[in-house]
Amino acid sequence: MKFFNILKHDLNKIMMNKGFIFAIFLTFLLAFSGEAYHDDVNGRSYTIFESLFAFSHDYINSNNSFSSFSVFQNGMTGYVPMFLPIIASFPFILSFSTERSSGYMRFSIIRTRKSNYYLSKFISSFLSGGTAVLFGMGLFGIIIYIIFPNISSFNENMDYLSVVMPNGEAIEIVKTLVSLFLYGGFSALPAFFLTSFTQNPYINMCLPFLFVYIWDTAVNKMLTNAFETGNVVIQEVLPACRPDSARRIVYISKVPLSISDRSVLLFNCFYMFLFLFGYIVVMNKRTDHGA
Question: Residue 96 — pLDDT band, cuts 50, 70, 90?
Fold first, then answer.
């Protein structure tokens, strides 16, 4: 019971600060950088924001690329994934830094026990990062569904709809939002781990950004080499190690699990455990308990 009171206190403190609100609106704004339409004639791609001014109302209503469902899904094709390690850390990073610089961290650890304190910080970081992305993309989705026409207005055949949204539009939207919550939560973990080393919020936000960029680039290069050499095993397993692989967890439904699905679950479980274990080890090694 004491642990849940600590967690509740941490979540209330995080979700009432300016960083959490800022992360929501930053996610919302960056989602408009996603690609809405690609012109095959001139080879140019138009972002969602550009599409609002580049095309007439009649053209948007006649092209299914501009269906609200498609545009909403494309919200994650722009700058959101690139800046997600920073966005997901905004809700808690300033609060953690203030807590440490004020000496309140030392007092909290003594009062609540180390294990409760560490686990509460881990869960609150994950939940706040995921919730900020969820709310930001949810707000984006509401605006998109107001501005762009519904996919049902295009009179698409059932075969096409069964491929695009096999479980119906509402279920697919919910799955997308849950997957974004997981993506945001996992993206917050590198910054959470770094708070065990330093109280500098700029380092704690920028280093994860650089880490994820290098990580994603390395995985892409290895996948390219695997396709060139015909290494089927690497082609099947390595995508599970991408920074955004947590999004795939929601779409795992078949039993027994495929090699790809097992790889996704194992990698993300290992990813969570690695940062939690690393945080606990570093904090326990510090004689000041992080203060």
Answer: confident
